[in-house]
Amino acid sequence: MTDIAILFIMILLHIIDDFVLQPVCLSKLKQKEFWKRNSSEEDYNKLYKHDYFAALVIHGLSWSIMIHLPFLLIGNYHSTLVACFIICQCILHSYIDNEKANKKKINLIDDQAMHFAQIVISWSLLTL
After folding, report:
1. pLDDT digits 0-9 by tens, 12-60
2. 126: which of 57, 115, 116, 120 is 20 to 30 A away, CA to CA?
3. At what angle do helices 79-101 and 108-126 cross, to 10 degrees?
4. In 3-state terms, what secondary structure has residue 23?
5. Mean pLDDT over each residue of the chain, to the nearest integer
């Protein structure tokens, strides 16, 4: 498989994971406001205050594994290095999604541009 084919597969996997496989309920669970609206103040403060963070990380991990699948399946890439990329990209993806879903500092276009940059960075560093 050529390097450019890997890039296009990563982009396709991004679209699949970020739009097709991410259910509406998960996109809501990533929003701190959802937890506030759907629980009492006492339950929110006691039980659910940080649950949005778990949803952000779950989606970030799913996305990170998905976009790195070509490297995991081809097998001629160092698996420890790919695992490090997956962890770093998970953290970054979760951060970016939080900036959009909770802090409202970026819009969908900014969010997607940053995710595409993540893909290009992983691809370029892993295919050196």
Report:
1. 999 999 999 988 889 999 999 999 999 999 999 999 999 999 999 999 9
2. 57
3. 170
4. coil
5. 95
Residue 60 corresponds to which amino acid? G
Q: Which residue has the tokens 């970026």?
A: 106
- Which H or E run includes 121? helix 108-126
Cα(25)–Cα(64) distance, rounded to whole angstroms? Answer: 20
What's the rounded Cα separation, in Å, for the pair 88 and 105?
Answer: 21
- Tokens 């779950």, residue located: 58
pTM: 0.92
Closest CA relative to residue 94, chosen from 55, 120, 125, 127? 55
Nearest of 53, 48, 54 to residue 35 by alpha carbon: 48
Answer whether 6's CB lies under 8 Å from 119's CB: no
The single-letter DSSP state of residue 67 is: H
